[in-house]
Amino acid sequence: MKLKEKISLEKVFEKEYKVKLVELESNKEAVITHFLHNSKNGVSQFFKKDAVKYTKEILQYEYPKEEISNIVAEEALQYGIFDTFDIPFPPVENPKFKFIDLFAGIGGFRLAMQNLGGKCVFTSEWDKDAKRTYKANFGERPFGDITKEETKAFIPDGFDLLCAGFPCQAFSIAGKRGGFEDTRGTLFFDVAEIIKRKQPKAIFLENVKGLRNHNGGKTLATILNVLRNDLGYFIPEPQIINAKDFGVPQNRERIYIVGFHPSTNVTEFNYPKPLDKKITFADIKEKEVPATKYFLSTQYVQTLVNHKARHEGKGNGFGYAIISDNEIANAVVCGGMGRERNLVLDHRITDFTPTTHIKGTVNREGIRKMTPREWARLQGFPDEFIIPVADASAYKQFGNSVAVPAIQATANEILKLIEVKK
Fold first, then answer.
1. DSSP secondary structure string for all residues of 285-322
2. Which of 11, 137, 141, 177 could form a disulfide with 29 if both were Cys (CB 3.0 to 4.6 A apart)?
3. CB of 226 within 8 A of CB of 173?
4. What is the pTM of this model?
5. What positions does UniProt annotate as the active site of this protein (predicted)?
6. Is the dihedral of CA 349, 353, 358, 362 positive or negative?
7. Beta partners for 257?
8. pLDDT for 301-334, tens place per residue?
9. pLDDT at 198 over 90
């Protein structure tokens, strides 16, 4: 058969076809894109059988009158029938190391690792909007639910570094030790199980600062016990790292846990030292005045003022905050008062005509929310990073993300200690 012009995976899996063989929530698009992006490093063989199978299904749907064989499907893959490389952050050509990206979000870990010369050989994320952003920037659809065995089965062997910004969950500790079995039913258990099976040279876990005292400290103690005693990794004392110390104007503290396989003989690790670099909101502020929709209405401003006054009357400091150009932002978070804790003044506005349905009028003080692009910059994402989702999703995604420069600085220290390609 003669293949016509290239087939868009975007259309196949999201827009046109509503048949079972190409369900969006399956791992089929993930298999195909992972195969294509690993064609030069040997890992593609791990995805090849299923990639050919799913390509055959898609071609059969595209060419219903043709008899599609496995050979034809394989040739179509090699021919490049699916174009997944028209993206801002393509795979590294000659990678120095391989890593996997669990609970990947929109790819903060991946961006940091690619900047250091790494090649992602597996990624997973369950949120469909985050998957969309990830694919728009890296050309791969992440695999789905990592708690499922059919997803774990696609993780290849032989990668160097496991990265995971796993959610914080309490453990129902049945035993006295708080070991591997006592973490069942939590997402950390799935991370630990993958480490146990694949034995990567190093691991890099990120979590909220509150993990340190979560469940009276038992959660972190159990995690460290599993990593150190059950899995045998060298785990230096976890450290709280602040994004503001690594070149972004955001006061964002997160706990980092790193570890090294016994075969590396690593017995000492130093977290990166803060950079001697002063940076403020002015450094990442929009160059042009943002759309009027980002400026608050007079009624909403008054609501925030009243809300803050009520809380101050109760003796606590909860409420909105306005960040000056010469200050750094509060931590960006995806819920609650996340945006209201990072309001800014922008006196450049001249058109006060509302562009959305608001109560009252646009405030004349220039009080506005930060834009999604400013949140991206607060997390260290370059301006080439595509934001393909609506603002509400974008704020959530950047609020949930890791701070790229802090991750990259720490990963660089890890890579110095494990044997990777120079």
1. S-SSPPPGGGBPBHHHHHHHHHHHHHHHHTT---S--E
2. 141
3. no
4. 0.90
5. 168
6. positive
7. 205
8. 998 998 888 877 776 666 789 999 999 999 998 7
9. yes
- How many separate helices (H) and strands (E) can be counted in the chain? 13, 11
- Tokens describing residue 6: 């290239």
By DSSP bridging, strand 250-251 and strand 367-369 are: unpaired
Sequence letter at residue 163: C
Residue 79 to residues 3, 4, 87: CA-CA distances in angstroms?
9, 11, 19
Residue 126 tokens read as: 């369950």
Domains and CATH numbers, the chain: 9-79 (no CATH), 97-275+402-415 (3.40.50.150), 287-370 (no CATH)
* DSSP helix/strand/coil, 397: helix
Nearby residues of 77 by Cβ (< 8 Å), 6 or more positions away: 32, 35, 36, 51, 52, 55
The closest of 243, 257, 252, 277 to 341, measured between CA atoms, is: 252
Judge whether 140 and 30 are in contact, CB under 8 Å: yes
